[in-house]
Each structure stands twice: as structure tokens, then as C-alpha cells.
Amino acid sequence: MSIASMIVTGKKATRDGFGDGLLEIGKQNDQVVALSADLLGSLKMGDFKANFPQRFIQVGIAEANMMGIAAGLATAGKIPYTGTFANFSTGRVYDQIRQSIAYSGKNVKICASHAGVTLGEDGATHQILEDIGMMKMLPGMTVINPCDYEQTRAATIAIAEHYGPVYLRFGRPSWPIFTTEYKFEIGKGILMQEGSDVTIIATGHLVWKAIEAIKNLEAQGISCELINIHTIKPLDEDIILDSVSKTRCVVSAEEHQRNGGLGDNIAQLLSRKMPTPQEYVAVNDSFGESGKPEELLDKYGMGTKDVEAAVKNVLKRK
User: Fold this and answer.
1) Which CATH code of 1.10.260.40, 3.40.630.30, 3.40.50.720, 3.40.50.970 fits the domain covering 11-176?
2) Confidence label for 6 from pLDDT (cuts 50, 70 and 90)
3) Is 63 a catalytic residue?
4) pLDDT computed for residue 2 by the predictor
5) DSSP state string for 206-253
6) Catalytic pick among 24, 63, 150, 308
7) Are 179 and 203 in contact (CB under 8 A)?
8) Who contacts 80 (Cβ-Cβ below 8 Å, separation ≥6)?
9) Would you tell me which of 49, 106, 162, 303 could form a disulfide with 298, CB atoms 3.0–4.6 Å apart?
10) Which regions of the chain carry the CATH code 3.40.50.920?
11) Each residue of 62-120: pLDDT tens digit?
12) Which long-range contacts (CB under 8 A, 24 or more apart) does 287-291 make?
């Protein structure tokens, strides 16, 4: 298993994976319904609406109302998928999610696009970087952050079979597709490459940045193990502990604040079971700004070079 043999099949946005997965699960399960908060095109929900107009609800710019409607539909036995930007899926409606969905364990799938700084030009007000922390703290909430089109498509289908509230996070930019040959299973991380010097644990868009960094690090003689963690909650503890028991140091990489994200989950796990040097690749207590996605990743410490620097720093502490 090596990234050197990895096949990249093209580039598509993860939000396209959501749209295609939603259509596919809509064909398989007639209990699936979709709700949009006036972002049909941005969430790629048009094909679902065209094929299943009686199972689609355009709520308009009323996200809190959308969550309440979704909770009601779930009570009636439907499987509602809500669709809007990640900022509006969490920050704007946290009370409704907590009280109407999470508290009673409603079977609602909260599907959130345009997460992180890779939203780009829409700027800091839309680039939510604290949503993973907000959602993972809700009891019973499953949190999934896939890394490419194919993994997002698979996750969108899989969550219909998982009973309970789910937060599914994905993004706007066109991104390499590289997980076609990997099986998606909720709660199970993917070992994408074995290595002996350092464990890199990445999620979302940062999985690809980790792959780019590993290619450069290996040219310098550093052996990297790469774990793709798409499910942040529940966390696959076994795959992390197995890897870190061998490498004895870890780098976490995510398009999120350092506080409250995947890195914190890993740190909590290791502090309890296997204290280990760790470096974070994430946003350091900052809002974003308007700009090109790749440039923003670099500026806010989440680029390829940042992963490389984190690996070299943690190796010094090993």
C-alpha cells in the first residue's frame, strides 16, 4: 500500500459527490427526502429535485425552519437530508440542531457545503472553521468530513443506513479524486500508506495536501504513514493507536481551527492511552479572508509546505 501507486482519476468538487450520492440514494430508498435553503445549485441537489419533485422541499433562506421541518419529517419516518453552506448549517442554526435534532436523536442528515477557507472569495463570514468542534460536542452526533468526490459520494449514500443525526461536511473547489479503490465505512479510518518514521492523520481536503507533502518528504528519506480519517466522530481509535505505537509521533492535518477539531480528538486519545509528540496543521485561532482557495490554505498554515514543516518539527521531539 503506497501513495506512489495511487490512481488519480480526475478532479471534481466534493459537493459534486454529495449531489451524485444524493441522487443515487434517492433511487435506492424512497424514504429519503431533501431540503434546500435556497442553495439548490450550490449544493448540487438539482438532479434529485428533477427526479423526485415530491420528495424535495425548497425552504428558502430560512435555515432554522429547515432544521425544524427536517426533525418533523424524521419523526414521521422519513430520512431528511438538509442542504446549505456549512456556516448556515451550524452557526446559524445551532439551537435548532441541539434542541430539535440531537437531543432526541432524530434521524436527520445535516449536509454542509463550502466549509473551510477553500470556500474562497466569499470571505471570512462564510468560511466557517469551527463547525467540526460545534457538531462533535453534541451527544450522539456523527461527524464525517470526506476528502474527495468519491468519498463524499460514498458517504452520502452510507449515512442513509445509519440511524441518528449526522453532520456531513464537504467543500466548493475542484479537487483531485483518489479514493476510488478504497472502501468507505462510517467510523473506520483508511490506512493509505504504511511508514515507520511519522504518522500523518488527515481529513477532508488536507488528505491531498498530506499526500503531496509525503512525496517530498520521502525524497528526503523520511518514511511517512498516512491515515485518512473521514469520520471524526466516532473516531477510529484502533487505527491511530496501532500506527502511533510504531512511529511514536504524529501530525494531524485539517481545514479547521486547531481548537476543537480532529487534532484535539487525537490528542485526547493519545493523552489517555499513549502520550505521544504531536504537531497540528490547522488554522491557529484566526478567521479567514477572501482569496483563492490554494492561496488561503498556504496563508493560514494548511499547505503542503506546512505539513512538511510539521513532520520535521515532530521528528525533533520524538
Assistant:
1) 3.40.50.970
2) confident
3) yes
4) 78
5) HHHHHHHHHHHHHHTT--EEEEE--EEES--HHHHHHHHHHH--EEEE
6) 63
7) no
8) 33, 34, 35, 69, 70, 73, 74, 107, 108, 109
9) 303
10) 182-316
11) 999 999 999 999 999 999 999 999 999 999 999 999 999 999 999 999 999 999 999 99
12) 287/124, 287/127, 287/129, 288/117, 288/119, 288/123, 288/124, 288/127, 288/129, 289/123, 289/124, 290/120, 290/121, 290/122, 290/123, 290/124, 291/117, 291/120, 291/121
- The three state secondary structure string of 49-70 is HHHCHHHEEECCCCHHHHHHHH
Which residues belong to CATH 3.40.50.970 in the chain? Answer: 11-176
Indicate whether 1 pLDDT > 80: no
Quick one: cell of 120?
Answer: 474562497
CA distances (Å), origin 138, targets 41, 73, 93, 126, 158: 29, 21, 13, 22, 21
Distance CA(269)–CA(309), nearest Å, equals 23
CATH value of 182-316 in 3.40.50.920, 3.30.230.80, 3.40.462.20, 3.90.180.10: 3.40.50.920
Query: How many angstroms separate the CA atoms of 127 and 122, rounded?
Result: 8
Could you read off the pLDDT of 110-154 as tens digits, one per residue? 999 999 999 999 999 999 999 999 999 999 999 999 999 999 999
